[in-house]
Recover the amino acids of this structure.
């Protein structure tokens, strides 16, 4: 070391200055390079970890419903949102027990071992969030909880190779820059000697002034044409370039502010769209949960409706049959009519149950909503409603316009009846209820309208000034048997459930606006029907309903139903043969013939009505048939109609209903009776 110092002391001063400057500069640049590199490494890595944690939290929270309902398609759709993150290799959701539920791999990393080696079973179950680093990737593991209960886990795997490439690129840049600095310093130090002290001092003073005043128009005076003179020329040239670049920078700064403003607006628009999309997804998930709940309750309601229809057949059919044979002045007419009316009311409740069960027969009739509302306002039910609420006024202004929709007039009428009844009963101190109809065009999808199609709609609005609906109750008003009324006195608890089911079956949408103690507005949107109605019916006399001895084969597994239908058919003038199963019907028709068969859709044990008809068509391809049922799958009824079934009769039977159905099938040229 002593010999090296002695050798250094003997160097020329220019070399010593050069050595000192170069050594000091190299050391500082090296320390700076290492420090900046470490800072970049940790900042890049921390940014990746933070981003992955946020992604895991967002995707995990949005996948709660998919894990609860075991919906891999929705879960995969949530994970697919990571395709926009270039650093994410793959991700996976795990069940509560740690088993793999669904995984997602970025398409560009499909062949990467790091992306495709997610664990099949979660071994390390974290209480909150855990980071786990490997050589070329790291994992963020997070629990997914619902109501403070762990329901699953999520892993987000992030690539580290791009981080390595970034650091390598940074090292190359800073190394090149350091080399350039050292080279420049060496060239400058070589020129230093005592002969240039004064020019250097003058140069330093001038540089200090320029630094303080930021006056880049100032120039250093050139004294000699030696190296210092060259340095002065270079410095003056540098000042000119700085001035030029300063002017350019000012122009670019103005343009940059404009670009920042444009980008800010774009980000605000994107953020607004994202918020709307998240809101729509939540509304759809909420509606899906409501639909699943209604389907579960509806299945139970449908089974009950089947049994009730069989029981009600005797209460509805026999009074109808007896009244036809009683003289007008008979004392028995009034009690029998009361029995029949009670049975029909019970049958109406069963119809509500069928609507709730979504098992009603799909009817595609062309209905004028204005005529339907007018008919209800002229009905005895509406007059009875006003009698119990004398302070209430219902307003509906008719117009010359038609408001056509295609669907079930019975269910649409029940919808109007339920909305009006609820509105009137909500105005406990009286008030005005307004009903309006309008033709509107929906060019954009209303929130929560999952089946929306752009085009014309008929809007039915019912506005009351009643007590209103509390916000916490709005989410439950469509639940069956949920009602603020006294059950059995002013409602069955099925009214709004029927409204919801009817609107859903007709491809419509409901919007509710309600304020407590102010009132409620229901807006129902139904797809408008703009087809031309070429059907025209005229009322004909009841005598035309009678037959002329045509043979009818009645197939029903219930003896009570067979007896009721047989009595009605005999009264109408038909020859009736009854069998108790589809197998018996097939054997009978192999040996005999019938002008018409009436098939019950649900028969146990043995084959049902649809299978019976299929087997009959194998040897009697032109056999006429009618379907009779109080509860059945609409898909089965639709299939039966495609096979050739001409009509459908809903139980419980009435003389007029079954008579019209037989007349329509046996005498089609006579037209349908209104």
């Amino acid at each position: 070391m002593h010999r090296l110092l002695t050798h250094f002391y003997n160097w020329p001063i220019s070399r010593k200055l050069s050595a000192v400057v170069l050594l000091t500069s190299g050391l500082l640049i090296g320390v700076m390079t290492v420090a900046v590199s470490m800072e970049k490494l940790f900042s890049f890595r921390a940014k990746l970890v933070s981003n992955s944690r946020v992604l895991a939290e967002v995707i995990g929270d949005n996948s709660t419903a998919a894990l609860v309902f075991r919906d891999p398609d929705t879960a995969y759709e949530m994970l697919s949102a990571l395709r926009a993150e270039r650093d994410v290799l793959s991700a996976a959701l795990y069940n509560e027990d740690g088993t793999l539920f669904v995984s997602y791999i970025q398409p560009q990393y499909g062949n990467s071992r790091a992306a495709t080696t997610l664990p099949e079973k979660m071994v390390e179950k974290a209480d909150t969030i855990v980071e786990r680093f490997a050589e070329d990737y790291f994992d963020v593991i997070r629990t997914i909880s619902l109501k403070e209960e762990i329901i699953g886990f999520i892993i987000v795997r992030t690539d580290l190779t791009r981080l390595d490439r970034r650091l390598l690129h940074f090292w190359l840049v800073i190394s090149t820059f350091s080399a350039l600095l050292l080279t420049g310093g060496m060239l400058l130090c070589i020129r230093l000697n005592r002969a240039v002290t004064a020019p250097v001092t003058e140069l330093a003073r001038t540089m200090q002034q320029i630094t303080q005043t930021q006056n880049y128009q100032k120039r250093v005076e050139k004294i000699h044409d030696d190296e210092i003179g060259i340095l002065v020329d270079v410095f003056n040239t540098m000042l000119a370039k700085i001035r030029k670049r300063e002017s350019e920078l000012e122009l670019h700064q103005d343009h940059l502010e404009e670009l920042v403003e444009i980008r800010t607006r774009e980000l605000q628009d994107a953020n607004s769209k994202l918020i709307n999309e998240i809101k729509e997804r939540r509304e759809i998930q909420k509606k899906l949960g409501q639909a699943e709940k209604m389907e579960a309750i509806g299945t139970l309601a449908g089974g009950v409706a089947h049994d009730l229809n069989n029981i009600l057949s005797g209460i509805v059919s026999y009074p109808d049959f007896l009244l036809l044979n009683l003289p007008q002045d008979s004392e028995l007419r009034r009690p029998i009519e009361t029995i029949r009316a009670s049975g029909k009311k019970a049958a109406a409740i069963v119809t509500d149950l069928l609507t709730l069960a979504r098992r009603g027969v799909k009817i595609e009739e062309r209905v004028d909503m204005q005529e339907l509302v007018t008919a209800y306002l002229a009905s005895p039910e509406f007059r009875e409603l006003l009698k119990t609420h004398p302070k209430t006024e219902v307003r509906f202004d008719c117009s010359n316009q038609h408001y056509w929709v295609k669907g079930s007039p019975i269910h649409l009428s029940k919808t109007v009846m339920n909305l009006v009844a609820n509105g009137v009963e909500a105005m406990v101190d009286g008030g005005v209820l307004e009903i309006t109809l309008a033709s509107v065009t929906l060019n954009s999808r209303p929130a929560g309208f999952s089946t929306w199609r752009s085009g014309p709609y008929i809007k039915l609005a019912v506005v009351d000034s009643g007590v209103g609906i509390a916000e916490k109750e709005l989410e439950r008003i469509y639940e069956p048997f949920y009602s603020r009324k006294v059950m059995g006195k002013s409602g069955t608890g099925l009214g709004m459930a029927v409204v919801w089911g009817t609107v859903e079956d007709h491809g419509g949408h409901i919007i509710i606006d309600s304020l407590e103690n102010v009132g409620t507005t229901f807006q129902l949107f139904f797809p408008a029907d703009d087809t031309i109605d070429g059907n025209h019916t005229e009322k004909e006399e009841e005598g035309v309903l009678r037959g002329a001895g045509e043979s009818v084969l009645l197939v029903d597994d219930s003896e009570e139903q067979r007896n009721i239908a047989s009595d009605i058919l005999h009264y109408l003038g038909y020859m009736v043969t009854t069998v108790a199963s589809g197998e018996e019907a097939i054997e009978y028709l192999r040996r005999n013939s019938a002008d018409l068969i009436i098939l019950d859709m649900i028969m146990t044990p043995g084959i049902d009505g649809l299978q019976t008809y299929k087997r009959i068509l194998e040897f009697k391809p032109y056999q006429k048939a009618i379907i009779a049922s109080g509860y059945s799958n609409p898909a089965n009824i639709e299939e039966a109609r495609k096979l050739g079934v001409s009509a459908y009769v809903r139980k419980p039977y009435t003389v007029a209903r079954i008579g019209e159905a037989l007349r329509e099938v046996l005498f089609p040229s006579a037209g349908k009776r209104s």
